[in-house]
Amino acid sequence: MFTQRRTLLALGLSLAVAAPALAQDRFPSKPVTLIVPQAAGGANDTIARVIAQRLSEQTGQSFVVENRTGAGGNVGTAAAARTRPDGYTLLLTADSAMVINPALYKSTGFDPVKDFEPVGSVATAGYVLVAHPSFPARNTAELVALAKQQPGKINIGSAGNGTLNHLIGEMLGKATGIDLTHVPYKGAAAAATDLVAGQVQVSVQSLPSSIAFIRSGRMKVLGVVNPVRLPALPDAPTIGETVRGFGATPWYGVFAPAGTPRAIITQLNAEIAKALDSREVQERLAGVGCEAFKSTPEQFAQLVRDDLPRWARIVKDSGATID
Fold first, then answer.
1. Parallel/antiparallel/unpaired status of strands 220-224 and 290-292
2. Do 89 and 193 share a domain, yes or no?
3. C-alpha to C-alpha distance for 204 and 210, rounded to whole angstroms
4. Pick from 241, 262, 296: which residue ends a domain?
5. How far from chain centre, in Å, is Cα 242?
6. Domain boundary at 209, 241, 273, which?
7. CB-CB contact of 78 with 232 (8 Å)
8. Residue 50 near residue 20 (C-beta atoms within 8 A)
9. At 288, which CATH number?
């Protein structure tokens, strides 16, 4: 009897010791930070806040968006690479920072393959070439014709040097032989505001940062950047319908610092997939011109590996570089 009691006591003590350890092992057991390396008001920020809210609801822990801007996304991306690999600080970024910047900048401060563990993609976004309503051109062809008559006199606003908006503008100039004067802003929202105010004539914008202005008539669409027409703007032609071969489909996804445990990567991917399967999330993304886009960590890693050389060729052909 004494032996049984001693055994039960030892078992009880071992369970008591194990309980806190099990509680600590549960993930997530505290708030998770989502670093967004672009400014508030743009596509990346909008998508991140939709996903963060849903993940918070699913896990019972807060997923907090933290905008860390600068150098076309390099500042926030490099900062995320240096965080503790425990799953509590993640990067939710546009493809531009991860697969375009390495070809665009002499130094980004991070290695997109060695410094990160791909968790999963979350969305694609519509991008458009827009103009102030008073701008004479009504479409891409008319913009090209006008720009050739007035080289360097048409201002094109972007979300900042090295951003996807900027690079798409450079690609358009290279593809059509026109010279547009680049005006960088600190974020897509600032560029959109100045376009509406008439401070710049045209801009490349994501739909999340421009759809309200388009619907209210304060911006007009000259062309869709994506290879196919967008459900949110079915009557707007693609730039590729005028400029053969032109087009891009920007994606957004979640990354963890290299060394993050595989079990955490797997769990985060499952939570993201569950969020993207939600009709509410799909509708919220569609409402701002985005589409849910899920993948496994392995599929996402392959997408990154495929896009790095593809964008390197595009950047080289465009002639765009940033010190």
1. unpaired
2. no
3. 9
4. 241
5. 27
6. 241
7. no
8. no
9. 3.40.190.150
Residue 21, in any domain of the structure: no
Token pair listed for 88: 């509590």
- Dihedral of alpha carbons 100, 106, 158, 148, sign: negative
pTM for this entry: 0.81
Burial of 225 (0-12, 13-18, 19+ CB in 10 A): buried
Tens of pLDDT along the chain (323 residues)? 445 544 444 445 444 444 444 444 689 999 999 999 988 888 899 999 999 999 999 999 999 999 999 888 999 999 999 999 999 999 999 999 999 999 989 899 999 999 999 999 999 999 999 999 999 999 999 999 999 999 999 999 998 877 788 889 988 998 999 999 999 998 888 999 999 999 999 999 999 889 999 999 999 999 999 999 998 899 999 999 999 999 988 999 999 999 999 999 999 999 999 999 999 999 999 988 899 999 999 999 999 999 999 889 878 876 777 76
Cα–Cα distance, 137 to 119 (Å, whole number): 42
User: What are phi and psi for residue 284, nearest 5 degrees?
Assistant: -65, -40
Give the phi and the psi of residue 222 in degrees, each rounded to 5: -90, -30
Domain count, the chain: 2
What does the pLDDT look like over 8-41, one tens digit per residue? 444 454 444 444 444 446 899 999 999 999 888 8
Neighbours of 27 (CB within 10 A): 17
Yes or no: say if 273 and 130 are a contact pair by the CB < 8 Å rule: no
Q: Could you tell me the residue range of the domain that residue 166 belongs to?
A: 127-241
DSSP string, 84-141: -SSSSEEEEEEHIIIIIHHHHBS--SS-TTTSEEEEEEEEEE-EEEEE-TT-S--SHH
The pair of structure tokens assigned to 56 is 């918070």
Q: Of the candidates 37, 42, 64, which has an alpha carbon nearest to the alpha carbon of residue 53? A: 64
